[in-house]
User: What shape does this take?
Amino acid sequence: MRNFLLTLFVVTLFASCAQEKVEVKSKASVVYENILSRRSIRSYKPEQVSKAQLDTIIQCAINAPSARNDQSWQVRIIQNSDLLNRIREVNSGFSHGAPTLIVVAKDKNNDFSNTDCGFLAQNILLIAEAMDLGTVVLANMGGIPNNPDAKDIIEALALPDTHEVLFTIAIGYKTESPDAKERDASKVQYID
Assistant: This one.
């Protein structure tokens, strides 16, 4: 019996050692890699981002911190081809051909809304990267809100009077993988 148990132990030991090892990453390393691998993408496949993917992205976005938990943002997701074509008609290079635009509007009466919207956007950018989707932040819809010939676009967003477009995020499947641009670490100083 003793020999049987010893043999069983040795066989089990060898079998477990022969199994493929699964790499277990810490939460910190996953977040770190995600942050450092994200790039601004300016070329997209025409394939549309799914509703399920967008639901996940928005769930992460709205869980961003906000001052006093005001959640002062308004978000509009544009996948309507007629509206996307109209936006491209007014500003041809604006969306870089992305099949989806996420418009983020700030509360004009909330001093912290710009920051709140920034946190929301960062969550969008990071979860999109984790889903292997590309993103680029585009300032103020490329001037569309101030263009008198584009009032129909702004009206289509149906924003409350208290809000105005702050920026837009183009999102879609990547057709490019740009290298990281150099970062200036000298702008960070420790005060001991």
